[in-house]
């Protein structure tokens, strides 16, 4: 299976995304603590750990969906504020759940994503995004009638549509067969080589990651 490799880091005074001493607890029990990293353009950080180790929670903290109990998250060396519009316009989040409407077609789901993301939702762009994951943009089949792998590809097509610089991905290879997995990894490689960044929670280590965090839970 093809594996992505990070593009060259851009020389800059500060990392684009950095975490300093991040900690999060649930019900008085620490989920993770002492998380430190710096992520630069062209780099991927992979999160490894067993189920329940906090990978999904950390992704949600990095995406601004949950506030950390301790520590600081910075974007271009400036502390991130809740719902920071510049940051949110730079992030694409694909969770472990696909986050798509089962009653809509793939194209209808992307049209909604474009509207919510404030990007061009023209038929041409939606068609290109669906074709990038080898789905038929003219299909009138509702998502509920698709296989799990096809549903996952609809979710991943949002990455091509939104064109954000930072991808936060929770088990992106889940439900994908070998060919679809290779297709996604090639897409990820292109994103990194063009200066994009990614934080990927995965059970399967990805070669070429600039950094790896192993969460113990």
Separation, N- and C-terminal Cα atoms: 29 Å
Poorly predicted ranges? 1-12
| Domain module tally | 1
Sheet bearing the most strands, described? 5 strands, parallel
CATH fold assignment: Rossmann fold
Q: So what's the overall shape?
A: globular
Given the structure, what is the number of helices? 6
The whole-number mean of residue pLDDT values reads 91
Order of helices and strands: EEEHEEHEHHHEHEE
Q: Supply the CATH architecture.
A: 3-Layer(aba) Sandwich
Secondary-structure-derived class: alpha/beta
CATH class identity = Alpha Beta
Widest sheet, order of strands:
6-7-8-3-9
Q: Please report the total strand number as a whole number.
A: 9
Features:
Rossmann fold, 217 residues, 30% helix
Description:
The protein has 217 residues and is α/β, with parallel strands linked by helices. It is built from 6 helices and 9 strands. The strands form 2 sheets. Strands 6-7-8-3-9 form a 5-stranded parallel beta sheet, sandwiched between helices. Strands 2-1-4-5 form a 4-stranded antiparallel beta sheet, covered by helices on one side. A hairpin with a 2-residue loop joins strand 4 and strand 5 (78-79). Helix 3 (106-117) crosses helix 4 (123-132) and helix 4 packs across helix 5 (148-162).
Write the layout of secondary structure elements.
Elements: E1 17-26, E2 29-39, E3 44-48, H1 55-62, E4 70-75, E5 78-79, H2 85-88, E6 91-94, H3 106-117, H4 123-132, H5 148-162, E7 166-170, H6 178-193, E8 197-201, E9 211-214
Helix pairs in contact: 3-4, 3-5, 4-5
